[in-house]
Each structure stands twice: as C-alpha cells, then as structure tokens.
From TrEMBL:
Similarity field: Belongs to the Nudix hydrolase family. NudC subfamily.
Basic and acidic residues bias spans: 12-28
GO biological process, alphabetically ordered: NAD+ catabolic process; NADP+ catabolic process
Key words, A-Z: Hydrolase, Magnesium, Metal-binding, NAD
Taxonomic source organism: Agromyces aureus
Protein name, as recorded: NAD(+) diphosphatase
Amino acid sequence: MRESTPPPLARAHLDRDGVGRGDAARSGRFDADPDARVLLLHDARALLTERVEGAPPVLDLRSPAEVSSVIAAAGSADEGAAPVVLRVYLGRALDDEGSAYAGAPIEVWVLDDASAALLEPEEARWAGLRQAAPMLSDRDAGLFTQAVAISNWHRSSAFCPRCGAPTEPIESGWSRRCTNDGGQVFPRTDAAVIVLVTDADDRVLLGSNAMWQSNRFSLLAGFVEPGESLESAVVREVGEEAGLEVVDVTYVASQPWPFPASLMLGFTARAVSAEAAASAVPDGEEILELRWFSREELAAALPEVGFPGRTSIAGWMLEAWFGGPIEASPQGWGA
C-alpha cells in the first residue's frame, strides 16, 4: 500500500538550515531582516489567515519588526512576564508555488496570553494543528508541525534530567543547557508503530480504545520498547491488543505526531490464517472492542461509527486501503 502523497504531517517545504542554528549573530540579523517571518504560536495554536476569501487558509507569517512593535507599544499584561516565551529558528522557506517568502528565514515565537490577544484578539483565527493541517500547503503544514513539536519539547525540558537545575535554550532553540553543570539536552522523539492488519478477504481490523468515546475505531498501535525492532513491535502490539499472530509485516510511511512527541511509523500486516483472524479478541484493557470491516461494511457504518481523522496517519492509511476519502470521518482524533 503506497499513497502518491505523504501523510498530512509528513509534508514539508523547508530548508531546516542546521548549520545556521549555531551562528551566534543569527538572531540579531533575523530581527533586522525585512524578509524574515515569524510563525506566531499560542497554546499550541497558530495564527491563520485567508489570502483570498473562500480560499484555504495559510499561516499568518509576520515580520519580527511588526510583532515586536505591537508588543512593545502595549506591553505585557503580566508585570515582569516575558511576552515572547520562546523563540526557535525553524529554517528557510523554499519556493512554494510562487511564495513571496521563498528563501526567508522563519522563527516560531511562542507568546504569552496577553501578547497573543494584542496581536490577534479574534479567537477563531487561532487554530490547532489537527484542525488546520489538512487545509494547509506543504510548507505551512511542515512549519506548523515543526513549531508544535519543538515547543512541546521545550515545555517538558525546562529542568536538567541529571541534577534538576533549570535549563536555558541555546543553538537557536535546538538544544538546552543546564545552568548548573553546563550539560546539553537535545530534542527527543518517541517511536510508535501503527499497523493496518488485513485478513485473507482483505478486511481491515480496527480496535476501539478504552480512552475513546464508544463506537470509535482505529488501527492498532503502540510504542516501541527499548531494544526492540520496529517489525517486532508490530508483531508484539497486535498480539497483545488483539491476541492475533501476523505475518508479512511491511513498512509503509511515517509522520510526526507532536501530541506531545511521537513519530508514527506505519506498517501493514496480514493475519497468519483465517482461523487466527476469527479468534482475534481485545485485551480488555487498552482495546475494548475489535471489528473486521470490509470496504462495504465500513461505508455502511458511517456516520454512526467514528474513524480517524485525516490529520492522522491512521486516517491516511485507512483511506488508502478504502480507496478514497472517508467523508463522514470526524476530524482531529487518533494517531
């Protein structure tokens, strides 16, 4: 199973410019560069706009001078608070369908509540990644995904894992340094496998997770354990969650899932036999219900049964198997 387009959050059109991150003078040049652009982030939501009425939204990228002047003119509502909580250099935009920002350096600025309200008080213009990603261009989807992922890491890495002292951002936001011993910590991503299991009749196996509302189904998935290969993780997870032995484990694609810090690695697999498929049972802890769906049964189940949204790799893989969009699928849930 191969889709002609990558999963929604695996799209990107950006030079991450790893070399430029270590340039000590880069931040000063960025602030003075009229071509530089800032991706505004508040509460993991980005500011969107419409270039043309009725057209798909785009990221509302603003110049650092504009953002700074608005904040400076009004000041932060919280005495002594930093209006820009975090700055991270994302890289340089590539040419994206004639984008005016081609070659421009881009940073994400994470804002406090007061600054976000100053720059855009209309809540509807601030959108989450799960909601917005399917509508965005490759460049904007990649920028938004990267911004959420790196800001999540900073929020969870404020203290040194060795001694507990505070850490501070360095290397343009791509590392943090312990203020006590000077040790560095770097961003980490948790690997998780997600698998589309089929039987001899090409039905797909979907499970309902205990953490979801009833009547929601998705592909089986789980984190990779230390010392475990991806293929072994697929076999183990399906065995644990469905009591099912699978064969022909095949890698399909991957995408980041920054909620908060996963990399989803998609696979297909096949039930070892018809007898094994018929005897699949949920573990009763993580998975409360299992169902085999043919394409006709899946279509008939809509809209009463919820399937993963299009931002997820689960939705992307399921639609590839289904052969087209699953129109009534709810948006924004499932990995």
